[in-house]
Design brief:
This protein has 1 helix and no strands. The chain is an all-alpha fold and about 70 residues long. The protein has one helix at about 5-35. The protein has a domain at about 1-30. About 50% of the residues lie in helices and about 0% in strands. The protein is elongated and about 70 Å long.
């Protein structure tokens, strides 16, 4: 077995990691350039469990007792 054959899996792994990092960078740049998806959308209350918002529940669904 030569040194070239023993390094082949590591070279493939490094290539895959570099490709993954490049794709992540491109996706992040595209998302930053696009801006927010819904600029007018804001939270109506505090954080989770603060009971400051509507809770996102669907009142009136049959079989869902409180």
């Amino acid at each position: 077995m030569t040194a070239r054959q023993s390094l082949a899996p590591y070279a493939a792994l490094c290539g895959f990691v570099l490709l993954l990092a490049a794709l992540f960078g491109v996706a992040y740049a595209a998302g930053s350039a696009a801006g927010p998806v819904s600029p007018g959308l804001h939270r109506s209350g505090g954080g989770p469990g603060s009971d400051g918002g509507s809770g996102g529940g669907m009142d009136g669904m049959p079989g869902m007792g409180h």
